[in-house]
Amino acid sequence: xxxxxxxxxxxxxxxxxxxxxxxxxxxxxxxxxxxxxxxxxxxxxxxxxxxxxxxxxxxxxxxxxxxxxxxxxxxxxxxxxxxxxxxxxxxxxxxxxxxxxxxxxxxxxxxxxxxxxxxxxxxxxxxxxxxxxxxxxxxxxxxxxxxxxxxxxxxxxxxxxxxxxxxxxxxxxxxxxxxxxxxxxxxxxxxxxxxxxxxxxxxxxxxxx
Amino acid sequence: xxxxxxxxxxxxxxxxxxxxxxxxxxxxxxxxxxxxxxxxxxxxxxxxxxxxxxxxxxxxxxxxxxxxxxxxxxxxxxxxxxxxxxxxxxxxxxxxxxxxxxxxxxxxxxxxxxxxxxxxxxxxxxxxxxxxxxxxxxxxxxxxxxxxxxxxxxxxxxxxxxxxxxxxxxxxxxxxxxxxxxxxxxxxxxxxxxxxxxxxxxxxxxxxxxx
Lengths: 209, 211
Prior knowledge:
- The complex is a heterodimer of chains A (209) and B (211).
- Chain A is 27% helix and 43% strand.
- Chain A is an alpha+beta fold and 209 residues long.
- Chain A has a single domain (23-207), classed as outer membrane lipoprotein receptor (LolB), chain A (Clam).
- Chain A is globular and about 60 Å long.
- Chain A starts with a helix and ends in an 11-residue tail after the last strand.
- The relative contact order of chain A is 0.18.
- The model of chain A has no long low-confidence stretch (mean pLDDT 85).
- The longest helix of chain B has 21 residues, at 2-22.
- Chain B has one domain (6-207): Clam (outer membrane lipoprotein receptor (LolB), chain A), CATH 2.50.20.
- In chain B, strands 1, 2, 3, 4, 5, 6, 7, 8, 9, 10, 11, 12, 13 and 14 form a 14-stranded antiparallel beta sheet that branches.
- Chain B is globular.
- The chains are: A alpha+beta (209), B alpha+beta (211).
- The A-B interface holds A 52, 54, 56, 58-61, 63-65, 79, 81, 83-85, 87, 89, 98, 100, 103, 105, 160-161, 181, 183, 187, 189 and B 48, 50, 52, 54, 56, 63, 65, 67, 69, 71, 73, 79, 81, 83, 85-89, 106-107, 206, 208-211.
- Chain A: InterPro entries: LolA/LolB/LppX, OM_lipoprot_carrier_LolA-like.
- Chain A: Residues 1-19 form the signal peptide.
- Chain A: Keywords: Lipoprotein, Signal.
- Chain A: It holds the Pfam family LolA.
- Chain A: This is Outer membrane lipoprotein carrier protein LolA.
């Protein structure tokens, strides 16, 4: 009797899981990757608002911060928190420039492998073009109106910090609407991107900090 | 004769200097009648509150910033997490008066001396109840002395606002750590400074107001 109940619950569970998120077929994966590649190839610049939710299992509420992000080809990036504090970080020409409530500092990352990786990861996450990355095992899912790509790091060093990256794409636009970085099964950072503007003119001075 | 007088004076001055610097932290305090045996610090004591702070750490001229999170998870233990602004966890502790457990720490910070320093700082910061052994007053503060192993903690409570504004952790002769609190509501501290006297380490915590 007990076994029957468990079997029933298992199938019920599986049913609801599949109802929310389904694995893509090989053909769907090919089509999805193609869509994203076409869009991301066109991205010369990008600006977007974001809201970041830091979820820690023991907290009663997620920690919410928000701001604006700018990207310009080939690899200039500014991540700017405006609420509840002013903190911005620029990745440019092998350097990280930080402005923390007016207190400025710079880190020369030069050939630092890990920072190069992080830079590539952020730009890849936002533009969506991460499918050729050999550092991850990628799996693909679909749900209503959205496509989801899940990236599992292969590298042991990277694994220590990131268990999984989940990129959620709007099905119509084939652009990223949410980035989720899982540190463990309980703790993650979820970044929701909205008011995205593609290829508007962004002056280089934005990336000075 | 005159030369030896000067020498004598100089030696006396040095002796005085040594004696002064060897004096106890409480030397200039005026003793007061001890009216209570414990002091309760309100700032991290409510298990319903997520205590979240923007943090700046200056250590030997290097700056590190991030988010400091503390939460009382049961009667005696606080969970303490420090993350970057992006949310990556740098360290994750569970700490009480008697116990200490590292849940995770990034390899760059995994140094025994650093962990021990932070353990002492956080324990002092999060400790709710202090057993008082003596009371003093000075410059508008009631000062309560509490013994903690081989150290003494001095708690400075403003006589006008009745808020805890400072804790000094000292050896018999020297101040080791100073904690400064600014609190509007006496429920949590809006700003906290942790200053070390013997190493170049300062931690500033600014309360994050959620909207």
